[in-house]
């Protein structure tokens, strides 16, 4: 059984004080993690404060990115080893904003995936699809290529615990989300790609999220689909009331 994962990605928003207040406010208001798992990926600067405030430990505190080396002369980078030392369970890898603004290539993303696994954490691997590619009908190959490249050399025992997020970049922050049919099609395609690389059994156990303008008023239709196991929400994960609603989507 795939436990749903409702994840937020704060990007470069909030202050340390606001991050602490958010975690304090959601205590006791999120579902039990064996029913619906919840996570917030936040800037590295906030993580220890959030971990301290997370008294009931229901919310998973995640990182938005990390580097692919564990340590060394890499000024400004975030060490996956240091994330592991503070017990961060999930790291987002390959978000479309990292690809676009920080020139992360498929090769860099693949190295980061290996680094996250090497340090015992779970990557949330994002794959993308642009509006241009969507209208020219190229999206299928694009998503397949990104997933395949990210997983190069990843053994099945690691791949079995990964999370993948399907995030068409035309739907991110635009207010125009993919329809539940489009989101299901993308997530289905990713599952087939994982099955081709590994096996049907492995693919059936992997959680695949949809991201792009997910809100409390559209999450139910997405979560009803067979291949969508959760969401990666940006803007609507920032206010605590909205994140609590997303997390409790089964009661909306
Ligand atoms: O990682 C999250 C995605 O970029 C979605 O962001 P959004 O919900 O603000 O569209």
TrEMBL record:
Pathway: Carbohydrate degradation; glycolysis; D-glyceraldehyde 3-phosphate from glycerone phosphate: step 1/1; Carbohydrate biosynthesis; gluconeogenesis. HAMAP family: TIM_B (MF_00147_B). GO terms for molecular function: triose-phosphate isomerase activity. This is Triosephosphate isomerase. It catalyses: D-glyceraldehyde 3-phosphate = dihydroxyacetone phosphate. It is found in: Cytoplasm. Transmembrane segments: none annotated. It comes from the Bacteria. The keyword Magnesium does not apply. Substrate binds at residues 9-11, 173, 213, 234-235. The active site is at 95 (electrophile), 167 (proton acceptor). GO terms for biological process: gluconeogenesis; glyceraldehyde-3-phosphate biosynthetic process; glycerol catabolic process; glycolytic process. Pfam families: TIM. It comes from Levilactobacillus suantsaii. PROSITE patterns: TIM_1 (PS00171), TIM_2 (PS51440).
